[in-house]
Input
Amino acid sequence: MSPFLFAGIPYEAHTVSGSHPRRCASSARNTASWRIEIRSTHARKGGKRLVKEQQIREAVSSILDAIGEDVDREGLRETPGRVARMYAEFFSGLSQDPAKELATGFEEGHRDIVVLKGIEFNSICEHHLLPFYGTAQIGYVPCGRVVGASKLARVLDVLARRPQLQERLTNQFVDVVYTTLQPEGVAVILSAKHMCMTMRGVKKPGSEIVTQASRGSLKTQPDVRRDFLAMLQEM
Output
């Protein structure tokens, strides 16, 4: 079987032993365990915002002072506050539950694959606190229930607005959709450029990291996976 090419990477559909697609007739499952895993480290403490802007302002002032800058000069005077507000925006997903974005759906009886391509996203790599950004492709096979395309994009946004690794973000995205929407299968591909590789360290501009994760029929059934990959090649 000839593999498909996506972002220059060959992907060949294959059956994975020990993994079985969900059957729509018995799709009900308890999502409590997943919610606990995602929310236990990211929930608000006492109803307050997790991001402590005053503490960030003080830390940024200390960093500027440590590199030998004058924190009181005109150009830097408001910088600690700007950075604090920026971090509050960058990491706003820490206090949000991505599953809630999929709460509203529609019973349409649709059982064929749905693909959303070219979802732009940006996140912050937790290793150097530098951005990585790119596009996501997602496909899922509904058990009759579908959601608006914007809901899928919002799930990705919530997960991306945290200190992240691309590999973790890929798996979290596919798991939220698979566990909450309960389709027969889900597949996600992320392609991203990392500023920690382009502006520091090895300094390789133009390089991209491609990650993929799949669950259910899109992992175990070759024909379904081939359909997904073929649709990604279409305009």
